[in-house]
Amino acid sequence: MAESESGQDKTEEPTDKKTKDSREKGEIARSKELNTVAVMLAGTGALLAFGGALAEVLMELMRVNFTLSREVVLDQRYMATFLLNSGKLAIFATQPILLVLLLAALVGPIALGGWLFAAGSLAPKFSRMNPLSGVKRMFSLNALSELLKAFAKFCVILIVALVVLAADRDDILAIAYEPLDQAVVHGLQVVGWSALWMAAGLLLIAAVDVPIQLYQAKQKLMMTKQEVRDEYKNSEGKPEVKQRVRQLQREVSQRRMMAAVPDADVIITNPTHYAVALKYDAEKGVAPLLLAKGTDFIALKIREIANEHKIQVLESPALARSIYYSTELEEEIPQGLYLAVAQVLAYVYQIRQYRAGKGKPPDPLKDLPIPPDLRRDT
């Protein structure tokens, strides 16, 4: 079992952050054998598919370049023309095969680790220039596994090549007795099928190498319990820091809430333990909004600010508790409290009219209608 430098066993699955950071560094599972197999299979397949056209072009090149007139042989100016035309024909003939090889070289790595461009992988690593580190890599377990894979590939290709040569022995010998045009096409077919079978033989090596690479990549990402705890602290923050942040957020929220109290139409209290500040905008026609609420010390501060700004303070313990527990800041009161709050606002309006000398003093508020589901007795 893998152990970290601290001696702890790496028993924990890698976190999302660890996996993401590793991917950004370019440290993902890659299989050279899978890439080799992909390129060889694609190349040999393209050779078989386009080999006939390639053979015809080769025959045309030989026919053009080996059947020269006396005028062409004696004039050096034709040399560049023949070379240019031959190059165009060769490029045109090999272009399909080269495109297939390019596509295979891109798809092979993507098939295992996905598309990834890590700029950090391009940065020079001076540790690789250390001779001692190079010697350690030469005699490491990874170097031994690479040596074993190379020997296994040699053995597989050798065995497949011997089997293919034995099977194609008659075809190979028959090429010597065929006309030139037919021999070229036949030769390309034999080479293509032989290479295809040898590439297919490497599938066995890739089938073994891919799981090994995936396992090794995962083992490198495994974490100890301490590493998981440290990562959580670094990503989420230390408990004391988070507590301080929450405290600052509460203080900012309370200051903003207290600044809204002077805009309230009425303060409803418990009378000492609860206090809520309500505002009603008759022009908008919406339900009353809760501007501020609090208990104990905060309730006392709300009453003090209300007294400073001459905002009406009413005692209704049941309504104060109901609004406090059912409504969040800057939200409308529940529909079940509309009637009770309407009576409170009407009472406040009558008090204002009376103080302005435009009416008689209002009667004391009676018991306010509060639905049982919104009532809080404590």
TrEMBL record:
InterPro entries: FlhB, T3SS_substrate_exporter, T3SS_substrate_exporter_C
Annotated compartments: Cell membrane
Region feature (Disordered): 1-27, 358-378
Bias (Basic and acidic residues) ranges: 7-27
One Pfam family in the UniProt entry: Bac_export_2
Transmembrane intervals: 34-55, 97-119, 147-167, 195-215
Membrane topology value: Multi-pass membrane protein
Family to which the UniProt record says this protein belongs: Belongs to the type III secretion exporter family.
Name assigned to this protein: Flagellar biosynthetic protein FlhB
Annotated organism of origin: Pseudomonas fontis
Gene that this sequence comes from: flhB
